[in-house]
Automatic annotation (TrEMBL):
Native organism taxonomy: Bacteria, Bacillati, Actinomycetota, Actinomycetes, Kitasatosporales
Keyword Zinc-finger recorded: no
Cited CDD domains: M23_peptidase
Gene3D superfamilies linked: Glucose Permease (Domain IIA)
Residue ranges of the TM segments: none
M23ase beta-sheet core domain mapped to chain residues: 244-338
Molecular function via GO: metalloendopeptidase activity
Record key words, sorted: Hydrolase
Annotated region described as Disordered, given as residue ranges: 34-55, 101-122, 178-203
Biased composition (Basic and acidic residues): 182-203
Protein name as it appears in the record: Murein DD-endopeptidase MepM and murein hydrolase activator NlpD, contain LysM domain
A Pfam cross-reference name: Peptidase_M23
Length: 350
């Protein structure tokens, strides 16, 4: 290719796929040119027609292939002693399909049988990476969006499972607390019922005992009246020969009547040393009741007496410090017991 002197050169210029070498003027800047139907008019014949643009004549095939090669190479066109100039290529999407191929724009419309120009095939092939890149980018975006959707769905599923587990745990805890409260209430009710039953039983026993004692009281009597208890059973003191008191003392004025505590038979009646005048009545169960320090005796041995019968008078005979009745209770086995407790067991309260 001839080069005008001093205007341009082909040294170090790139070769294209069809064997041509790019020509440029060294003093002219690089320009981006996108062929369209408006900028390139088809001409008749098989020869390529150079288009003048800014004082630069280029073969249509060389120019079209150069543009496509520059885009396919990454959008950067280089030249000797010039910095690289980026070539921008908009993403036309569906509109890219409407852009005419360079070969179709410069072909001879009158010669339908003309063979396809080499640059046309290369241009068609060179445009494929752009669409492929766009499709790959869209595919990557779709894959990323799908991954994001799956992650969000999994996170939501995990959150739902956690909420369901928390709700189930709360329901289980509430059920356990309700069951515990019901059990405690049932236990409290059972305790209250048992306590009420126990109290009812105790009240029934108390009433039965009261009735029994009342009945016994009607058959038993206190030995005297208008008295004061001065000494009790087991009380220690030097005034008693055994070292302790063996009965229950009812202090009363001299001559106060002494009555039979219960129905029985007079076993002993008369003087008895330190006891003074003494009367012993044996009951039907073998228990013996002794009345001591009497001023006088009103019954005799073998006589049958009933509850409340007068058997003597209060006195101060024998070893005595003043008028009183010294009452003793002896079991059938011969043991002295507390007269106060015995009288109480018969429903009497001295």
């Amino acid at each position: 290719m001839a080069t005008p002197a001093g205007r341009g050169s082909t040294s170090n210029a790139p070769y294209f796929a069809d064997g041509t070498q790019e020509f440029r003027f060294d003093d002219e800047p690089w320009e981006e040119w996108n062929p369209t139907e408006e900028s390139i008019r088809p001409v008749r014949g098989k020869h390529r027609v150079a288009k003048q643009r800014g004082g630069l004549a280029r073969s249509s095939t060389v120019l079209g292939v150069g543009v496509i090669a520059a885009v396919g190479a990454g959008g950067i066109a280089t030249a000797k002693d010039k910095p690289p100039v980026p070539i921008s290529m908009p993403d036309l999407g569906e509109q890219a399909k409407k852009i005419p191929v360079v070969g179709s724009l410069i072909s001879d419309d009158s010669d339908a049988g003309t063979q396809e120009q080499p640059g046309v095939a290369q241009a068609t092939a060179a445009t494929l990476p752009v669409a492929a890149t766009s499709s790959a980018g869209q595919s990557t975006a779709d894959a990323g969006e799908a991954l994001r959707a799956r992650i969000l769905e999994q996170a939501q599923s995990q959150e739902d499972e956690a909420d369901a587990a928390a709700q189930a745990a709360a329901e289980q805890l509430a059920a356990e607390q309700a069951a515990k409260a019901a059990a405690e209430k049932q236990e409290a009710a059972e305790k209250a019922e048992a306590e009420a039953k126990r109290k009812a039983e105790e009240e029934a026993k108390r009433k039965a005992e009261a009735e029994r004692l009342a009945k016994l009281a009607r058959s038993y009597s206190l030995p005297t009246s208008s008295y004061t208890i001065t000494s009790t059973f087991g009380q220690a003191g030097s005034m008693w020969s055994s070292g302790q008191h063996t009965g229950l003392d009812f202090a009363a004025p001299s001559g106060t009547p002494i009555k039979a505590v219960h129905t029985g038979t007079v076993k002993e009646a008369g003087w008895s040393g330190s006891y003074g005048y003494r009367t012993v009545i044996e009951l039907s169960d073998g228990t013996e009741i002794a009345y001591n320090h009497q001023s006088s005796i009103g019954v005799s041995v073998g006589q049958k007496v009933t509850t409340g019968d007068v058997i003597g008078r209060v006195g101060s005979t024998g070893n005595s410090t003043g008028p009183h009745l010294h009452l003793e209770v002896e079991t059938a086995g011969g043991s002295l017991i507390d007269p106060l407790a015995w009288l109480q067991s018969k429903g009497l309260n001295p």
